[in-house]
Amino acid sequence: xxxxxxxxxxxxxxxxxxxxxxxxxxxxxxxxxxxxxxxxxxxxxxxxxxxxxxxxxxxxxxxxxxxxxxxxxxxxxxxxxxxxxxxxxxxxxxxx
Length: 96
What we know:
About 75% of the residues lie in helices and about 0% in strands. The protein has a domain at about 1-60. It has helices at about 1-25, 30-55, 55-80. By secondary structure, the chain is mainly α. The protein is built from three helices and no strands. It is elongated, with a radius of gyration of 28 Å.
């Protein structure tokens, strides 16, 4: 999956230079450099988002699952320990 992300970002930077070449047959070095820096910035953001959401997403979900389960278990225990409330009595129900 990492190789797919690499090829995607390589295509992004190469495509930006190809579009520049199609628009201007002999662009100045400053324009080429500006386009290349902008394309590299976009490729970096694309790489970060793709790796975080696609490549490492399963691993992060697996790591969070035990923590979420433990938090849910503690929440269930806390809700069981709370005293019941009665509509007629503002604080507690009388003992059954």
